[in-house]
Amino acid sequence: MNNLLPLQDQENINPTTCLTNKEEKDVLHLITQLKNTLNSVQNSITEIQQGLNDLSNKIQKQDEKVQKLDEKLQKLAEELNRVKHMCQDNSSDSTSSNI
């Protein structure tokens, strides 16, 4: 295939890569572009991961707040039931004393 190239290009072929100098430069340029793109993607992934970690921390804090509120609500429900029973007991006591 090298015989199809002009003589000038055949002399410029790197025997290790079988590429002309121009082709090598093009390939190196493409590799550099790919490395830069990869670095950019890795940076974006790192930013996304940090954002997800921040969100996860916020969600965890909100879950803790909800759990505390749920505990308070449970205590209030227990207190309400206690008061309701006291009122019912008082109501039945007053009804029986009126009879």
TrEMBL record:
Coiled-coil segments: 38-86
Coiled coil found in the keyword field: yes
Protein name: Uncharacterized protein
Annotated organism of origin: Adineta ricciae (Rotifer)
Keywords: Coiled coil
